[in-house]
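INSTRUCTION: Work out how this chain folds

Token vocabulary: learned, describes local backbone geometry

RECORD BEGINS BELOW THIS LINE
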Amino acid sequence: MANILSQDEVDALLGGLPTDDGDVDYSEPTKSLSSSKVMAYDFRRPNRVSKEQLRFLQTIHEVFAREYAASLSGYLRSMVDIEIISVDQLTYGEYVLSLPGTTSLYIFSMPPLEGQGVIEVNPALILSMIDRLFGGTGAQSDYSRDLTNIEAAVMSKLVQRALGAISTAWEGVVEAKPQLDNTEKNPQMLQLLPNSETVILISCELRMGKTNGVISLCYPFLTMETILPTLAGRGAFLGRGRRTVPEGPGWISRRISESQLEVVAQVGATHLTVGEFLHLQQGDVIRLPRRVEEPIDLLVGGLLKATARPGLRGVHRVVKLEDLNEDVATGEEGAAHVA
């Protein structure tokens, strides 16, 4: 059995060590420790990601939130808003325990980075989005169930859009190409990492009309380990949100000039009852609140942009611009063809 020193023996050993001035005095260490700043450190949960790196990760995923919300808005034909709730680091075991008993887990990889990440979507939120896609209102679902094969295939397309948004968000740091590898519904079957391994959890709230739910992204630390040091330098984010346009203003002008707008020459407008409208016949005269010699309104994209005079040029009906609206820059008079 190993010998264990008593407290008196430890004090005797320490008392034999000289101080700087040759005197032995060990009453001071207690005083110095009490005056110093002591911080608790949990070796089971080491903080491997700094607060600054977590802030940059939040910035990256704010881009993801905007891109994914815009993509879903067009796909679901509904206003979608996604907001970052939190960015945390925790152990993989804690992450698995935080998941519901039954949920939808989408495992993805990010070549050329190593490891696999997880996208977790609340089942009730999935059913609401699928209901919206299938022609429903997308109302909040009060229950959750397993997805059918058709619903699972449709949801995979929504997850693919999320992976595209992840690629866009990370493009200023690494040219990653996320791809969907597998799906799982039981968190206990999700054996991707040892329970003690550190992961980064991004939690987002998705709002679609009166429906809301949580989407989370989980990245293993080993996946982020090679790129986290680059996040400390702001150089990777200097170009974020900016797009280089070839040839600058000239290119923009040419693209705008190709746009088509509806131009309407409005002779006048009046009000009719439903009965009067139903009894209209060919040859009837509708009285308009405008005299023949007065100019007519020219509407561009539904907005009043100018007044004009109607006329003919050959077999075509045309209008001649007179006065431009104050919101439009003054230009030369011209003729606009009215179909």
